[in-house]
Task: inverse folding
């Protein structure tokens, strides 16, 4: 005859809470990592567009200065 020892219901509930806590901690870590990657990506694109805009602005200023110089074409 086999005797099965029953664990108290209180122990089963605490295991469930510990598992949920671990899942929540992993979820928060994953979410914060994804937020960090998103912010890094946005920062890189903003820097790229800023550098392109500065090149266009410099070209525009140079063109304006060339048109204002009366002896540039001669």
Result:
């Amino acid at each position: 005859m086999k005797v099965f020892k029953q664990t108290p219901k209180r122990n089963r509930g605490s295991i469930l809470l510990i598992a949920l806590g671990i899942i929540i901690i992993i979820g928060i870590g994953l979410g914060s990592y994804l937020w960090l990657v998103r912010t890094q990506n946005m920062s890189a694109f903003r820097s790229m567009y800023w550098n392109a805009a500065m090149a266009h602005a410099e070209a525009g200023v140079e063109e304006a200065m060339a048109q204002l110089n009366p002896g540039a074409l001669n």
About this structure: Residues 9-68 form the longest helix (60 residues).
